[in-house]
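YM 10:42: cAMP-responsive element-binding protein-like 2-like sequence, as discussed on the call
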Amino acid sequence: MKGDIIKKDENKGKKVSGGKVKKPGKRGRKPSKIDQKAKLERSRQSARECRARKKMRYQHLEDAVMKKEKEICKLRDELETYKKWCKSLDDGVIPVELKTSLKLTTQASVKTNTASHSSGSKGIKLFIPKTRLTV
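YM 10:58: structure's back
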């Protein structure tokens, strides 16, 4: 009986499951205050680095958006120019800008063709749409 009494006193505050006695709390050594401070500092440093990466990522995205917006504005202006040219052509007037653009394209085509004939290759063909003129 003395053995039973000792076991009861030993098991106070301990859980028994499947015949095994479990101690409350975690296994292993308990971290000291120095370890906790170091862990907290590492966590803070990691958070600073994360915020810096996030800031760089957003800056990169903002730069890309600005670049795309500039391209969109440039393309819209170009589209408006082409619309004006088409309206002028429908009215029977050839815009001066269109003439100079066609001359430059033709000159570039001639230079490309002469250079390609000397080298023996076929060269690049440029597509120049035929415009209808109503006078």
